[in-house]
Amino acid sequence: MKMTKKEYGKYVERKSPKSPLLKNMLKAFLSGGIICCIGEAILNGYSSILPRDSAGTATSVTLVFLGALLTGLKVYDNMARFAGAGTLVPITGFANSVAAPALEFKSEGIITGMSAKMFVIAGPVIVFGISASVLYGIIYCLFS
What we know:
Blueprint: H1 5-15, H2 21-47, H3 52-72, H4 75-83, H5 91-104, H6 110-117, H7 122-143
């Protein structure tokens, strides 16, 4: 059967299941908000015993640790299945994107498996983030 690109696009649209967009957005918003509220509670706890700058750093480290721990216990995957993008945006999503490939490829060995595959997902994000910050810094220096 020969189809044009336009016909094929219409065919795929007809066959693809419809996504409950509003429901998915609400679940992502609520779950991401809950994760951020937990982060804020951790920050408030650390703020009572540490200076504000150190409390922010300690909060980030704690959230990364919790994200990696929950990934290792296979809890984060279940949360992501339910919440969708709500678990990707907070810093815990970054921890998950580093820990999940490391766990998946651990059978290939520490060097060629875990270490080599650890940044498969997060690597491009890190590179883009660093590149964007350097570009922003250059632009800021030129115009200030």
